Amino acid sequence: MQYQGNGVAFQLFGIEVRWYAIFIVTGMTLALRLVEREMERRGIDGENIYDLAIWMIPIGVAGARIWYVLFEADRFHSLWDVINIRSGGLAIQGGIMAALLTCWIFAKKKDFSFLRLTDLLFPYVALAQAIGRWGNFTNNEAHGGPTSLPWGV
Prior knowledge:
By secondary structure, the protein is mainly alpha-helical. It contains five helices and two strands; from the N terminus they run E-E-H-H-H-H-H. It has a two-stranded antiparallel ribbon.
């Protein structure tokens, strides 16, 4: 049996709110909170993660979109097609690279160790990515091929 769920969770003021967005935001929010706690546990002011997140999240989303557009260029015919992320198309590789660059700049400005900062962040980035993958499931995308295994989708 193939899953054919609806990717739309609900509508708010006539705008579709998709499960994909809910899962991604949930993953990011949980990751930020856990990084804050870990920073505090290590004697670092946890508020720093929110100073970083203000820059890292939008730059990471832009990087994810740029990477996707570069590798799927034939799908885009106008500037609107490129910037309209609601039509789909983000790639974690570009997001990670953009986020790493942002972390490096942030670490330099705040006099943090870049390696220590990434050591704090990336276990939680993996958690956020795993939660975000459930959004791909609700969109009926980014899963493996057909299978007859009992746990397959």
